[in-house]
Amino acid sequence: MDLFKPIGNLENNKKPQQSEQEVEKVKCLIIGSGPAGYTAAIYAARANLQPVLYEGLQPGGQLTTTTEVENFPGYPDGITGPELMEDLKKQAIRFGTDVRWGLATASDLSKQPCKITIDNKKVIEAETIIIATGATAKYLGLDDEQKYAGSGVSACATCDGFFYKNKVVAVVGGGDSACEEALYLSNLCSKVYIIVRKSYLRASKIMQQRVSEKENIEVLFEHNTKGLFGENVVEGATLIKRMGQPEEEEVKIKIDGFFLAIGHTPNSDIFKEYLETDETGYILTKKGTAKTSLPGVFACGDVQDKDYRQAVTAAGSGCMAALDAERYLSQKEA
Ligand code: NDP
Question: Which of 28, 114, 144, 160 is catalytic?
């Protein structure tokens, strides 16, 4: 099962019909439950903003699909992603955050108070909104990815790796995610290929070293994926070696699973109409703050960060969003 799904799209971003729908007024609405959302909730609750947090499609965010988190300060022996997120959630609830199951499906930020529709029915009128909707895994855009979805294609090794025990798999990508997924899979699978389009890995040195130390991982540099083949499930991939060069060559590898780890797209679709974003959809925030182009609307975590994308930077920006929301409300009330 692929847990990385967009949190909403433009098609269902219809303006909420207030007269037909139940409307609830809140002081601070937080959308998203990754490290950014929960940290914003901890700070907002402690500042008495009585935050309501909607968890979204993937409660706990992307870290719930990670194995060991070794770089979150305060855990010298590491902690698993799901445990870290459970702890953050407990901390947010301890200070009074109202954590709810539900997905933000539409927004109307055209005037104050802003409105967010949850699960296409309930409307929340919020004095401040903190957008912490994160980002979603990217696919290559091959027809075969659709064709074999759930039958050998996945964007989450920790969700689906178990199904490939003692089998041969490939991971596409050359960053830390690809290395992390490959390392995880190498403990389950007989062989793991990493398909890298460049002649080098972009991943951090420590990850590269771990990959090189694994005997059952083979890195295929300068390879692009052309397609997948197999009767009903993935049985192999067709790759192009040194694409566009005189020595270009087609290569086939036999694999049972094909994992994507080529980066992410920000989950900003339902807000893009109202907020300034960059060309790829990352919400723009005012330098050194969590302020978006609209007063009272703040953004934190991966939906506004395409450079760092770490749990700790997401948490830090969640703190900033809550402090900015608190200051915005105090100035409004003054
Ligand atoms: P990155 O953007 O760092 O890497 C994406 C990789 O996918 C690159 O190698 C890129 O190739 C490749 N790629 C992109 N599009 C295609 C395509 N169409 N075909 C083939 N290859 C493609 O994303 P990650 O998700 O790996 O990492 C994001 C951030 O999260 C980073 O800051 C990373 O450090 C961090 N992270 C940290 C972890 C940890 O510390 N444990 C674990 C996971 C992530 P190219 O290099 O050619 O552009």
Answer: 160
Judge contact between 92 and 99, C-beta under 8 A. yes
Can 22-136+264-333 and 139-260 be said to share one CATH topology?
yes
CATH architecture of 139-260: 3-Layer(bba) Sandwich (3.50)
Residue range 22-136+264-333 forms a domain whose CATH class is: alpha beta
Q: Is 172 in the pocket of ligand 1 (CB under 6 A)?
A: yes
Residue 264 CA, ligand 1 centroid: distance in Å = 8
pTM: 0.77
Residues 87-112: b if buried by 16+ CB within 10 A, e if exposed:
ebbeebbeeebebeebbbbbbbbeee
Q: Tell me the per-residue pLDDT of 302-333, one tens digit each, with 9 for 90 and over.
A: 999 988 888 999 999 999 999 999 999 999 98
Domain ranges of the chain: 22-136+264-333, 139-260
